[in-house]
Specification:
This protein has about 60 residues and is α+β, with helices and mostly antiparallel strands. The chain contains one helix and two strands. It has a two-stranded antiparallel ribbon with strand order 1-2. The protein is rod-shaped, with a radius of gyration of 23 Å.
């Protein structure tokens, strides 16, 4: 009777030790989502400031 060999994903060195590629991919995608959210918030703040300046108001409220 043959036993099934379960292949494990390759390990990737990270600052936190070695992690499986699936884990590092998940972490990378989370970082991309977080970065996109931060960039979107930054652009919204910039647009808000620009509108306030055009209207003659202070943009830091």
């Amino acid at each position: 009777m043959a036993t099934a060999v379960h292949e494990r994903p390759p390990l990737v060195p990270t600052p936190h030790g070695f992690l499986h590629t699936a884990v590092t991919q998940e972490i990378g995608e989370a970082h991309l989502r977080e970065g996109a959210l931060l960039a979107h918030a930054h652009l919204r703040r910039q647009r808000h400031t620009a509108c306030c300046l055009l209207e003659g108001e202070r943009g830091d409220h």
